[in-house]
Amino acid sequence: MRLFDLSGKTALVTGSTKGIGKAIAVALAEAGARVVISSRKAEACEAVAAEIGATGATAVAIPANISRDEEIDALVARTTETLGAPDILVCNAAVNPYYGPFLDTPDDAFEKTIRVNVRSNMRLCKLCIPAMQEKRDGAIVVVSSIAAFKGSDYLGIYALTKAADAQLVRNLAVTYGKDNIRVNGIAPALVKTDFARALWEDPERADNVAQHYALQRLGEPDDIAGAAVYFASPAGAWTTGQVLLIDGGRSVQE
User: Fold this and answer.
1) What's the pLDDT band for 254 if we cut at 50, 70, 90?
2) What is the rounded CA–CA span in Å between residue 90 and residue 183?
3) Domain that holds residue 167
4) What's the pLDDT tens digit per position in 201-221?
5) Are 214 and 208 in contact (CB under 8 A)?
6) Three-state secondary structure string covering the chain
7) CA angle 153, 203, 145 (to 5 degrees)
8) List of residues 6+ apart from 127 with CB closer than 8 A
9) Full-model pTM
10) Looking at the domain assignment, is residue 42 inside a domain?
């Protein structure tokens, strides 16, 4: 058995046109999976799918705005029609429309963050799990955040949703373990992506942050991708209900 072989598997990855999501999609494809690239913009999805396809792997672009139930439903339906029901679901897409004191969170930002970061993941799982149950095999990976485990002055609503994602992982792992469906999470610290650009684009500030990491550097998207391959592959066949901190040693540093 090849521990990291995903040949014959279909993987649906949300938010996969850049950053962590793209790195995960590329890594899954390199391991042999057929990958669905999805984000809001069709052109961006097609570009990444073409990039992966040029390597000889299979990748299909299916754009979707996961804040809309009907687009989530269409995403899963089109994935199933095109490549087969997802064997691997990676819930990566997220938003953070408000940065500031938690109790000052505007109502619309609160609703949007909950809807995209938590509710959409629940809906995606609800739609994908039945086919996994039929096959008695499946892997779900939810991208959480180190913010789920720390109090925050200015990332309060985002941190709240990422903590909810960590609990979603545990709940689903308990309920669907009997069907051989593994559900795990990844909780990165600060990774140099467009999503987190405001936190690292100032070199001095980025360097100051890195000093609090045991490895003395911020993360790169590729630093996260391998964990998703592990969780999705035979190597992770007896791992479920876990949320793996990938943080360059931030959580163990004083």
Assistant:
1) confident
2) 10
3) 10-247
4) 677 777 888 899 999 999 999
5) no
6) CCCCCCCCCEEEEECCCCHHHHHHHHHHHHCCCEEEEECCCHHHHHHHHHHHHCCCCCEEECCCCCCCHHHHHHHHHHHHHHHCCCCEEEECCCCCCCCECHHHCCHHHHHHHHHHHHHHHHHHHHHHHHHHHHHCCEEEEEECCHHHHCCCCCEHHHHHHHHHHHHHHHHHHHHHHHHCEEEEEEEECCECCCCCHHHHCCHHHHHHHHCCCCCCCCECHHHHHHHHHHHHCHHHCCCCCCEEEECCCHHHCC
7) 40
8) 72, 73, 76
9) 0.96
10) yes
| Lookup: tokens for 237 | 């066949």
Count: domains in the chain: 1
CATH code for position 217: 3.40.50.720
Residue pair 26/225 in contact (Cβ under 8 Å)? The answer is yes
**Which residue matches tokens 């609503």?**
157
Active site residues: 158
- Give the C-alpha separation, 185 to 172, whole Å: 11
pLDDT in tens, 58-93: 999 999 999 999 999 999 999 999 999 999 999 999
Residue 253 included in any domain: no
List the 59-61 sheet strands across, edge first. 59-61, 34-38, 10-14, 88-91, 138-143, 181-188, 243-246
Which whole-number Å values give the CA distances from 132 to 33, 37, 41, in the listed order? Answer: 16, 20, 28
8 Å CB contact between 185 and 166: yes
Q: Which two tokens stand for residue 78?
A: 């089109």
